[in-house]
Amino acid sequence: MATKILFHREVEKDLKKLPKNIRERFFKRVKSIGQNPLSGIPLKGEFEGSRKVRLGDYRIVYQFSAKKKLALVYRIESRQGVYKK
């Protein structure tokens, strides 16, 4: 059973700021998170419990619950800005 993917409302705002080609790649990458949610790199410090996947110069940040088989994508932004908000 594939993991269910949910998006935080901030992701919609983040996506509108991105170039079209990155938005298209984003949805393909999120699909791969649904197939293998543990593929993302675990984050440390303030973001402990979250994972990231690279999308060129952008990062997709999400949390995964194995118990609920659920991944919550809550950020997509450039590598420089993703951890600042």
TrEMBL record:
Coiled-coil regions listed: none
Presence of the UniProt keyword Transferase in the record: no
Gene3D superfamilies: RelE-like (3.30.2310.20)
SUPFAM superfamilies the UniProt entry points to: RelE-like
Pfam families referenced in this protein's UniProt entry, alphabetically: ParE_toxin (PF05016)
Keywords: Toxin-antitoxin system
Keyword Cytoplasm appears in the UniProt entry: no
Protein family membership: Belongs to the RelE toxin family.
Protein's name in the database: Addiction module antitoxin RelB
